[in-house]
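Newbie here. two chains, one complex. Structure please?
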Amino acid sequence: MNQSSDFEAPIIEIENMIEKLKSISDDKRDEVAGQIAELEERLARQRGEIYANLTPWQTVQVARHKNRPVLSDYIAMIYTDFVELHGDRRIADDRAIMGGFARIGKHDIMLIGHNKGKTVEENIERNFGQARPDGYRKALRLMKLAEKYGLPVVTFIDTSGAFPGLDAEERGQAEAIARNLTEMARLEVPIICVVTGEGGSGGALGIGVGDVILMLSNSVYSVISPEGCASILWRDGAYASQAAEALKLTANSLAEMGVVDEIIPEAGGAAHHNPKQTAAEVKKAVVKHLKRLKGWSPSRLTHRRFEKYSKMGFFTK
Amino acid sequence: MPWFIKPKERKRPEREDIWNRCPTCKAHVFKEDWHNNLNVCPRCNYHGKLTAYERIGLTLDSGTFREINETITPSDPLDFVDGKGRYRDKVEQTRAKTGLNESVVTGTGKIDGRPVVVAVMDFRFLGGSLGSGTGEKILLAANHAYDRRMPYIVFSASGGARMHEGILSLMQMAKTCAGVARLDERKVPYISVLTDPTTGGVSASYAMVGDVNIAEPGALIGFAGRRVIENTIKQKLPDNFQTAEYLLEHGFIDCIVDRKKMKITLGRILSFYNR
């Protein structure tokens, strides 16, 4: 059964009606065909309306949706010849971040992404996509390897945050993220970042510095979770919806602030309704920017990247 | 009125005025002694906070400091309102109270006659949080060091990113790191001094990537908050967790230096840079 949130109830209702009609025996199929077509039309309209008018807090629910495509889905749908590479060569192989050689269209790349799972077992193995320092160091190792081989780096961002644990602090979570920020700023190959789900603060940014930042239309990217922000600034986590509003964490807001370069539309209103078409849109956008950045010299890339980040932020002089 | 209500404790303001209570060992220390000892507890060596200008006075050769970009101050790009009010009002109050325009003071000066660029954070300004203005000043100071090939020293004191500026605050982590990364290219020294506290987004950006990372004794340094970690792993954390001493033990800082010896230590380190 679908995992859903309240605002999706009308969609589920129509979906269930269609399913019921479709299960009617063959001899009556002609009679209900018209009804099905009509319902499907209504469904598309309803979806369009609902997802075009989400509040920021509802968008957070969509970004965290249990059926939302995760990295392994995208690998299956848009990449070929994926060769997974494991380990940070220091202490461990953090399953919360996955990476390796891959092809997208005609382009050879290094793919790195947060690795959320879909089942309980997968999520336990992958720590719900919450990486430890080992994960960020693995990512950095793969980026340096990409630099050596002249491969563009494509990162897929989808994490609620870096793992807040004793071992993570012990092994230098702060240093691991900081190191990635410094190294990504000057990596001599193109970096394309795609926020596909949750962009959770430093844990997201740790693989999120690049030449172009793309974002799926229902994904979110924030300095802190709405719940965390609410518990600090409202002294009550129940104000998460207000905090989500105040934080301006949706793709549209981020594009307005110049943090995100391009928004990728989600097919069917939300990625979990039409993963295939959504993945195709992601592929189209990534390939477009791979083409654009192809042949850029290392100095042009790093110079432009420095300029890009130098301009981030608003203040009064 | 019931007879058992406790009478209000008599206030003794004169006592509060001259005494300072050490937050760590709870010792009562004469304010004057506390101040003369550079806000360090004479009994337990707890290093209290310093204002940015106090720190500059202790670190740079007297009379050498020239401030740069001092007018940069927060705007309110998100039009942020929380349970307690508007961000822009909070900024105005903080500016009036502290006389500061941002959570960091930047400029040039000398240590033992050697020219340096410094950025010194001030915890009084919104908890030393990393806002757009903070990031801009830290970047511009790094660029100043880059252009003139002068060593760059950053003193951090920060609770982390500034939520009121949302994602723009997060982006300052990338921006400042891009700035200090460029110093390597010209082989310009970058020294990071981590003071109490250096946590969250500041620890996970420029503060942790110095050529040399120095911490003050007992400073709280870490990425995630103690409570968040305890709630996540349901496990008690060691007493010295996320202290300077803990980070030294785990290999993330080079040395712990007493405030009284900070200037002499920085001078000695800089003396090895002979380019």
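Moderator note: Residues 49-271 of chain B form a domain with the 2-enoyl-CoA Hydratase; Chain A, domain 1 fold (CATH 3.90.226.10). Chain B touches chain A through 65 residues (CB under 8 Å). Thread marked as resolved.
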